[in-house]
Amino acid sequence: MNRICSIFILSLIFILVSCQETDELTIYTDMSDEAEEYLKAALDIIENNSINRYEIEWASFREETFRLALSAQSTADTYNAIRDALERLGDNHSFFMEPENSPLPKISIPGMAGKEKFYNPAAGVLGLRITENIGFIRIPGFIYSGDASKVFATSIQEAIRENDGENIKAWIVDLRQNTGGNMWPMLAGAGPILGEGLAGMFIDPDNNTTKWYYEAGKALYEENPVVTVENYYELINANPWVAVLTNRWTASSGEAMVIAFRGREKTKSFGENTYGVSTANRSFELSDGALLVLTVSTMADREGNLYGYKVEPDVQVKGDFRTDPTNNDNVVEAAVEYLESVMDN
What we know:
Blueprint: H1 2-23, H2 33-49, H3 58-67, H4 79-88, E1 95-97, E2 126-129, E3 134-138, H5 147-163, E4 170-174, H6 183-194, E5 197-203, E6 209-215, E7 218-221, E8 224-228, E9 241-246, H7 253-261, E10 267-271, E11 279-285, E12 291-301, E13 315-316, H8 330-342
Parallel strand pairs: 3-4, 4-9, 9-10, 10-13
Antiparallel strand pairs: 1-12, 2-3, 5-6, 5-12, 6-7, 7-8, 11-12
């Protein structure tokens, strides 16, 4: 009888201990200590920084993530579980980048494999005069940083400089193929048309606000220059009328540029709704060099209006994107018609 009671007591203790450890998210699996600590660290970053951190039941979220990595032995074995966790956040913008030495397939840029060293940061930027009085600048997506950012920003300003003139009273800023990337060289490059001062904000779930500006060739994050165009340009006719063009491919940093023009006087947008990830990401490096690129805040315009969703143009115009904007481009034609009606006012 005493033996049976002892077994029962030991069993009860084991059950209680197991429940206590499960509540603390200690899950007994075949995971190595390295993999377990790595996954815990990644989940800590996600829980503490995600834009949706107050909308998720974290105990069950963590448990589900660990169940997807039960037999992980290396940090790389947890990658798919981390990717799944980021998808379950529901922000549609967070993603995971593997380290350079990962044995698994790496995220690559379509068509760029093995060609990165030949990449021209100015590629895709287009400047021209649509009419005698209207300039045009196309700002594509751009994913690079460092010196390439300065080259890209400078190329945008040079395209503006080359097509400016005494007769240019208005500008079209084409963001229809701006799929995002690094917003700071875009902001620095578009600065002469955008104008100086506050351009937008990031607001996190705790209502902490950080602001971004353009000033004298610099894209500023609060007071900190992020990208600088050394010999920056100023328009001959300052504060022009502007038409901003968007479509469903305008995303992320492309949407940041759309928002930068929101609230600006003498500005109207044309085209289709943007992609719908007008939120800000922050990169967190993990112990093996992998990156958690996590959505941490929502974009807001200079007046504090929050986005986080598709940005609708002022005027809806359907039309296929044209490589040559002067050739039967419905959206450009609508923008030109508008600018010609207002630019002498």
